[in-house]
Design brief:
Layout lengths: L1 H8 L17 E2 L14 E5 H5 L6 H8 L3 E4 L7 E4 L2 E2 L4 E4 L2 E2 L20 E8 L12 E7 L5 E11 L3 E11 L3 E12 L16 E3 L2 E5 L11 E15 L2 E15 L7 E16 L4 E15 L14 E18 L4 E19 L7 E25 L2 E15 L10 H5 L7 E18 L2 E12 L3 H5 L1 E2 L5 E2 L7 E15 L2 E24 L6 E24 L4 E14 L16 E9 L3 E10 L17 E12 L3 E8 L35 E9 L1
Parallel strand pairs: 6-9
Antiparallel strand pairs: 1-2, 2-8, 3-4, 4-5, 6-7, 8-9, 10-11, 10-35, 11-12, 12-15, 13-14, 15-16, 16-17, 17-18, 18-19, 19-20, 20-21, 21-22, 22-23, 23-24, 24-27, 25-26, 27-28, 28-29, 29-30, 30-31, 31-32, 32-33, 33-34, 34-35
């Protein structure tokens, strides 16, 4: 009962609302509007000003700190992977300026949300559920990061954040523009040494693994325990041409060079991760025609150079990977008199390849060329969507059809990996999937202050290159399943928004997701590929499953300056079929809640917030997922804005320096560190983190 009481008291999601328009610091949930043209009803949005008041380390941390239904996976001091309502990895779509981004690392050291810096962000949109037909493969949610556009005149911003554990980030961006042409350029650097947990240990000290050389041989070498854990340079630019009021052309480019990123939860670290992103958008407004194209390329080199497993050699394990995405989209908008309609077509080509070597510092290394065997995924899609008002109802609906071809290069698999083919574990290298998807949403407006909505969506996601074609031999073989079917989600969402009395607002949402052919890990014991001894095999299977839950948020304004917010989110995942003993799905967040009290007079603001996460007791023991204890932390923030230009902020996260762990277990990673106890290594969250933000707009 005590735990339930704490959860109820802390049921939260802080919604910061500040009144000054230019340097206003505002975080808000986008509520169900009276009339939403071309937008569905489950959308949330934060702005660059929201990001500015955080320590700006990682996008996953930032979003998780605002919305309880958003979580992240902790592997390192940065580059944390997103989880929305219990869905993660390719089950959610992450876009940057509408372009799809996929990392190169097989361990997702570089998740999509990693490939953009905080100063680039104009706003972040989160759309929950399968209610999207404009993009392929939106199984459960979309996170779209929109970067800043240049504006007319001369302006810009420079800023710095410094904090505990030698953390710092500095940036500059500026723009110059006329009505015809506008140009923006920017640059940033982000750097940190290892953070310390609530018990005073550096995060690098938690990397202690079992290895063939001994139970505790897998750790960082002494000289790297307090070495930098990331050093990231980014540059970006954007040009907008507007030859007429009705025509706009936008071109943007960004480059990212991340160096020496340490991942204590894994057995290797990234020597570098280099990203090139190019976007082009053409908008002919009087024709209602939009054309966009994009290309991004990522090169990723990870090794155990900094670990004792490398000995005196350069490395004993190494994976080099490259990924790329190329795509375009055409959308035509028009009115039928009784309905606003969008029709469109899109295409993308996703390529992914990786080579691996293990025991490189021994006379007989285990070479795995074609670990990801140069896989192409080609998709062609057509879609139509529309919205119409009928008295008190707003009806939104969409339909999409996709044809997707997945193809791997069999000849890329060689060396020791050939045994996966000769043993028949990889027996097919090409597959085409064709499928429809769609949704219908209805909102009923009771009056100006209250409304209800309900929606049904059907979405589909094809298996990614790893799930069908990964080829990794050795003592712990990891191989794909070419026979996997696409995952299908049939989901119902219901919700309400109400303002029962002055200054009080509430919003509630429930969802039930029925998953057919859900792609899920399978681990089993068998005779090693060499024919002697037993090995643990990891592959993928289709299962039927369900994920369900909801979120609730409340806001109350005591007066124009003082307000309080609270929210909570809970989700549960269950298996309905497949080879398993435990029916719980892995990596499903427990109940999480947050409360906040905020003061804001337009220049000065102060915030105190508490975050509570319940015990993660619903874990998948089949995949050796272990329970995580509950925790409660408190954060403080104060700030002052002078003349709408100069901003200074000071924050303390985890005020009481608690030792606590994020709930996720990362069992899906092929190079996850295994502790002496035989469980996957988990690393704690940062202890007390003090930081200061300073920025100036000109």
């Amino acid at each position: 009962m005590r735990k339930l009481a704490i959860a109820a008291i802390l049921s939260t999601t802080a919604i910061y609302t500040f009144a000054n328009a230019q340097t206003t610091i505002k975080v808000e949930k986008i509520t169900i509007k009276e009339k939403q043209k071309k937008e569905e009803f489950s959308k949330k949005e934060i702005t660059q000003e929201d990001v500015k008041i955080t320590r700006q380390v990682d996008l996953g941390e930032i979003l998780s700190g605002i919305y309880p239904e958003v979580n992240f996976m902790r592997k390192a001091g940065t580059a944390n992977d997103l989880n929305v309502r219990g869905f993660s990895r390719d089950n959610i779509n992450v876009f940057i300026d509408g372009s799809e981004v996929h990392g190169a690392c097989p361990n997702r050291m570089d998740p999509p949300s990693f490939h953009v810096s905080s100063p680039q962000i104009e706003k972040i949109e989160i759309k929950e559920g399968p209610f999207d037909v404009e993009n392929p493969g939106t199984l459960a949610a979309i996170v779209n990061v929109k970067t800043k556009d240049p504006k007319e005149g001369v302006g810009g911003e420079t800023g710095v954040t410094v904090g505990s554990f030698s953390y710092r980030t500095g940036y500059f961006w500026g723009n110059v523009g006329s009505k015809f042409i506008k140009v923006l350029v920017g640059a940033s650097n982000q750097y940190s040494k290892p953070y310390e947990s609530g018990e005073g240990k550096k995060v690098t000290e938690y990397a202690v693994y079992t290895t063939p050389a001994g139970q505790t041989a897998g750790r960082y070498k002494p000289q790297y325990i307090n070495e930098k854990v990331f050093n990231i340079d980014r540059v970006w630019s954007k040009v907008i041409l507007t030859p007429t009021d009705k025509v706009e052309f936008k071109l943007s480019y960004a480059f990212e060079n991340a160096r020496n990123i340490l991942y204590p939860a894994l057995r290797m670290d990234a020597l570098y991760d280099r990203t090139n992103r190019l976007n082009a958008d053409f908008d002919i407004k009087d024709l209602g025609l939009k054309i966009s194209a994009y290309q991004n390329k990522i090169k990723h080199d990870m090794r155990d150079t900094f670990r004792t497993t490398s000995g005196t050699a350069a490395y004993s394990m190494m994976t080099y990977a490259e990924s790329s995405m190329t795509g375009f989209k055409v959308v035509k908008s028009f009115g039928l008199g009784w309905m606003d309609v969008d029709v469109g077509a899109d295409y993308y080509l996703r390529n992914w390849k990786a080579n691996n070597i293990q025991a490189a510092n021994t006379p007989n290394p285990n070479r795995n060329p074609g670990m990801i065997p140069d896989v192409d995924i080609k998709n062609v899609g057509l879609f139509v969507k529309g919205v119409r008002d009928i008295q008190n109802w707003t009806i939104s609906t969409g339909l999409r059809f996709d044809s997707t071809k997945s193809e791997a290069d069999k000849n890329a698999i060689s060396g020791n990996n050939n045994i996966l083919i000769t043993k028949g574990l990889l027996n097919s290298f090409s597959k085409t999937d064709s499928y429809p998807s769609g949704y219908i949403l209805a909102k009923y407006k009771i009056d100006k202050r209250n409304n209800l909505y309900i929606g049904f969506g059907h979405s589909v996601r094809v298996p990614d290159p790893i799930e069908r074609y990964i080829a990794l031999s050795g003592q712990a073989p990891w191989y794909g399943n070419p026979s996997l079917k696409p995952t299908k989600n049939n989901e119902i969402d219901v919700g309400a928004e109400s303002y029962p009395i002055d200054n009080l607002g509430l919003r509630a949402n429930l969802f039930y997701s029925d998953l057919t052919d859900f792609i899920y890990l399978r681990q089993y014991q068998g005779i090693c590929l060499s024919g002697t001894g037993n090995c643990t095999y990891t592959t993928y299977q289709n299962i039927d499953a369900k994920i369900y839950g909801g979120d609730l948020s409340l806001f109350y304004g005591f007066n124009e300056k003082l307000s309080a917010e609270a929210s909570l989110a809970y989700q549960r995942g269950k298996k309905d079929s497949g080879v398993y003993k435990d029916s719980d799905l892995t990596e499903i967040p427990p109940l999480k809640s947050r409360v906040a009290l905020k003061y804001d007079d337009g220049a000065f603001y102060g915030l105190i917030e508490g975050i509570y996460q319940a015990r993660q007791s619903k874990v998948d023991s089949d995949l050796k997922e272990i329970e995580t204890s509950p925790y409660f932390i408190m954060n403080l923030k104060v700030g002052y804005t002078y003349a709408n230009r100069l901003f200074f902020g000071l924050g303390v996260d985890n005020v009481f320096d608690r030792l606590y762990y994020n709930y996720l277990s990362y069992v899906r990673d092929p190079f996850r560190g295994i502790s002496v106890s035989g469980n996957p290594v988990k690393i704690p969250e940062p202890g007390r983190f003090i930081y200061a933000n300073l920025s100036y707009k000109f």
